[in-house]
Amino acid sequence: MKKTFIIIAAVFAALACLSFTIKAYHDPETVILGSWKEVHWEYDRVYHSAHIDRAISSDAREVKEMSATDLGIIDAESWVFNPDGSLILSSHHIKKQASWKIKGRGNILMITYDNNRVERYNIARLTKGKLELNFDTDANIRGIAKVSCVKI
């Protein structure tokens, strides 16, 4: 009887450890930690106008710069997600600090800046090596933009 109890307890302990390990492995708040580098940026237009169509067809970077006035993350080339909830966004000429949280079912990245401005991004893909964020651009450029990053 005593041996059976020990075996059952050992099996439950092993299953509990395994479930915690699996949860930690897939937990978006754990997977996102570290340094990421932007590798691709694309814009899918929804609203058509002559001015915006010219900007999009001529240079996607121009559309990105137009959006960057309202969105902080879109202007960053590298991001560092820290375990304490701080986020460092940087490019060759600027460096911003913000805080981050993952909301919903692990599919929404919420970034809050010092001036209490909040940005929300849909996490389209998050693996150990790849991060894809989708977001709606502002009223001037009406559309959906996607940024892809790799872990560095």
UniProtKB/TrEMBL annotation:
The protein's UniProt keywords, in alphabetical order, are: Signal
Signal sequence range:
1-24
Name the chain's protein: Lipocalin-like domain-containing protein
